[in-house]
Amino acid sequence: MFQPNDYVFYESGGICKIADIQTSPLSGMPPDRKYYILTSVHDKNGVMYIPVDSENIFLRPLLSRTEAEALVEQIPSVVVFEEPTAKLLRTRYLEAMRTHLPVEWVRVIKTVFARTKNCVNRNQRVSDSERAFAESAKRYLYAELSLALELSEGEIEQHLAPRLQKMA
Questions:
Q1: Is the pLDDT of residue 139 over 90?
Q2: What is the domain partition of the chain in residue ranges?
Q3: Phi, psi values for residue 58, rounded to 5°
Q4: Which CATH number is 65-165 given?
Q5: Which residue(s) pair with 34 in the sheet?
Q6: How confident is the model at residue 120 (pLDDT cuts 50, 70, 90)?
Q7: pTM check: above 0.85
């Protein structure tokens, strides 16, 4: 069970802080059920109520400092996706994002970066949906690493840029 002030990744809300745990925080909720009250890191007005005992909702603790440092060291060796068609590549992006794992966010970011670089060399563009996958992955990754390593998201971005550009 998580505690107030813990940070978690919530599948529908991204990186969130557990503001409180209450029994039926809103009228109309079962009076005997406890809820996590989550606040979004990216949307200060975003408040979510998640049943503590729900088995159908994905919540995971964020990386510890040690895990975050290990992930940062691992980034250059993360292999990009290679698929013959845009449709298959989109499927891989979706699968990666649905794992809710930071290493998969790294894979998405690195793949889009590599494809962008290749497209520029051929006077082409990556699709808007590919860029959107990369932006979502960056938002989640930078926020999680920022909290784990106690650095600003801007500092995380600067720190990761050279690692994300290295191909395994």
A1: yes
A2: 7-61, 65-165
A3: -90, 115
A4: 1.20.58
A5: 23
A6: low
A7: yes
